[in-house]
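A favour, since you know our structure tokens better than I do. It will help me judge whether the discrete encoding reads sensibly. The space below this message is yours for that.
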Amino acid sequence: MRGRGFKRTVLSVATALLLPLTIAGIEAPPATAALNLSGFDFWVDSATMGPIKTRIFRAADGNTDRVVYVLDGERAQQDLNGWEINTNVAEVLQSWNINVVMPIGGESSFYADWDQPSSWFGIPPGAGSSATNTGSGVTEALGAGPGKSYRYTWETFLTNDLRWAMRDRLGFNPYRNGVFGLSMGGSAALTLAAYHPDEYSFAGSFSGYLNISAPGMREAIRVAMIDAGGYNVDCMAPPWGPNWLRMDPFVFAPTLIGNGTRVWVSAGSGAPMPEDLSIPIGDAADRLIRGAPLEALALANSRAFQVRMLSLGAQNVVWDFPSDGLHAWTNWQADAYRMIPDLSANIG
């Protein structure tokens, strides 16, 4: 027992020290947009965020009953969702007769309703550079723009504004939908399902933050959000307050069990997939150096959540921990392929 306790202590200390140093590269740099012509833009107003674009991909058989929301990662762009830019998952979901909903934007938002607009030291937004998606939080921290000129209210948008607009304008079923995402979108998917069980019967997390109250995690997320757009985590939720704990899957795990939500949790091992090694050597090395430690930490986070759920007797989760997979789109696309049959069986 003493040996196991010592190992847990060492792991906690190592995580606290290493996460802030590595998590800043949590997503790949912004990619060149790759428009999928089978989708269309769907604009819906948010009371606090203004007009928000969502990309819609219709099910191949034309049904409006089977719907899934697909959430982006930390570096979500304002033009297209990363899943459309980097994968063909929308097309695959369409072929499974599932309607795909891809919200656009929400960089570093965790798809949450924030406590206040992101700012630093009381300085008004726009006092610094207004640049966005530069890849450097240093140039964006004091700028205006999404989540800074106004308060992020993504949970309200997804579960109210967008939900009912799709019902009224597209005929989409607003109940028993699915939701999944990567990294910040993974933990957000579980959060949305926990608190809106009538809307989401299925939630999937790929390389998600599923134990955000663990030692070092808040400061790790702080560093990641600074790097991805210059956002201030303290404006999202005060430290260790009720709003922060409400966002922690480790904390609300009993709710997911009580709701009977079908949950899918996946994280790679940190070893490269063959696809990661079939690109130019410089790119492969960069992907390996950045992606291996990040995915190993995501795996540790997801495993901690697994222990928590199993200790509560959970029977509603599929655990997917393949022998390879970096913190990269190659891994998340493969995760989605494995998940889709289970998603299909548990929505609509």
Q: What stands out?
A: The longest strand covers residues 39-46. Residues 1-33 have pLDDT under 50 and may be disordered. The radius of gyration is 19 Å. The beta strands are 39-46, 50-57, 67-71, 99-103, 177-182, 200-206, 262-266, 317-320.
